[in-house]
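Q: I have two molecules that I believe assemble together. Could you output structure tokens for the complex as a whole instead of separate predictions?
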Amino acid sequence: MRRVPPHDRPVEARGLVKLYGDLAAVDNVDLTVEAGDVYGYLGPNGAGKTTSLRMLLGLIRPTAGEARLFGRDPLRLGRRALEGVAGFVEAPQFYPYLTGRKNLELLAAYDGGDARRRIDDVLATVELADRAGDRVGGYSHGMRQRLGIAAALLRSPRLLILDEPQTGLDPAGMRDMRLLVRRLADSGMTVLLSSHLLAEVEDLCNRVGIVDHGTMAYEGTLEELRRTAGTVYRLRTTDDDRAVAICRGRPGIEDVAVSATAGLVFRATDDAAVGELSRALTDADALVLELSPSRATLEDLFFSLTEGDGANGAGPSAERRGAVAEHAA
Amino acid sequence: MRPGVLTVYRWELSKLRFQKRTYLGLGAAAAVPIIFCVAVATQKGGPEDVAFGRYIHDTGLAIPFVLLLFGSIWLFPLITALVAGDIVAAEDHNGTLKTILTRSVERSQVFFAKVLATVTYAIAAIALTGTVAVVAGSIVSGFNALPTLSGTTIQPGRGLVLLGASLLVYLMPILAIASIGLLFSTVFRNSAAAVVGTLMASLLIQLIGILPGLEGLRPYLLSTQFQAWQGLLRQPVDWAPIVRAAWVCALYAVPSLAAAFLVFLRRDVGGG
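A: Yes, here they are, computed for all two components at once.
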């Protein structure tokens, strides 16, 4: 398999810092998006997602660190670094006194090349063709959001950066947006998508970055994140007290907890340990009534990383893991 | 093919064409001469104490010159500031700066296009006032010979040429005010603050001009340069105030534009 040379990466940010006075909006964020990724950039509101995206696009100057888009620094190279890149940060904004089409004509002119010839296509793609003659001032939030995607597609980008594209959309609008992003990703576009809607990201993305309080709490594939977090099991036996004693201290079995609602839960990083455990339970006469895995959802993982003292580590903290287990069970 | 400054400039003009404030400014530039001419037609007498004031009933050619003198106090600074103070700040307000700065145009191109569009608007406003004033004035007072400031008389055709030249000289302090407006627009990021700030700056400069003890500063004040065109209406032509206006206005305009340019290149584009 060909290894993608680092300078070809759609996004590579190293040590990004943005200070506003004493406040660190972004504090030492590394962000890597590989070609073909649909990258979910996750974090609570105010975690520094938008600020990092602004730095990627060269809209604001990092206090420290640097960003590269396909190996090019937007601060030094200006528009040349944005070749093949399109998207928006926060809500896409347009000239309210111009029609949707006129706005796209303006942006196509600012893109140069044959962008203007794509206007009808992109309007059709986002299903705005019949409203293109209306002034943007009268557009709904969802329509502006779609016009934002249309404006990005005018550039026929290889990398699409979308900042919370589903914000403020109704359920149908969210579904349409998800389908649209899915379609674009399937067509070979690399997508960097920020969101706080975990279910959407879980559905769309292959890689995630989780940012909290300006720092990156996790970056990697969704699979890896799940593996790191392990699988949560629920256990019911004929003698739970003895079962707890057996579970504790066994290699591969972690975060054993007894909760009133879920009963006995623990986390296991590999299946063999679970198999060994069931044998040990039987040998000790604590007969297994139920031993069921429940895969942690992205939401569980997200909370385990962004709350409590798990925020700084690569994996969930022991304290939070217990809560994750309970949640998952 | 990448877009150039000219492309961005054409779209800046389009944006101006679709905005109400452009018509507010140009409307004022056209309406004031008409109102003035209606007053001339219905009233006897006139502003005796300003240059050409006493000739407004004799020839329509005197009317644009009188308007240039009155307009320098706040009318033309306001008309100029209306667009110059808004042209960058409005994009902050609309959040569109980030929209256009993530396309294939450089910040410098956007800035120069905005400067050119502001200049174009200022030229249009001045030309509109001059044209409307001379047409309406001629209807009211006739297209007759004009007495110069040296006491000689010039034919109307020559008067028209000198009016055109005077408008060009008048444009110099207008463009200096436009530059200050652009600076405020870039720094304040708020259209109203930039428009009012520009007007206040213009009024403050005039205030310095009438303070006792500061007479020595007067030749270097922007407000003084609004009278430089009078040199053209002497025989022979007095070039000294015009030459001075050129470099004094440049002293105001160049640092303002340079500062605005540097701020615009480096500033963070937030909000929106």
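A: One point stands out. The interface with chain B takes residues 54, 57-61, 78-79, 82-83, 85-98, 102, 106-107, 109-113, 151, 155 of chain A (CB under 8 Å).
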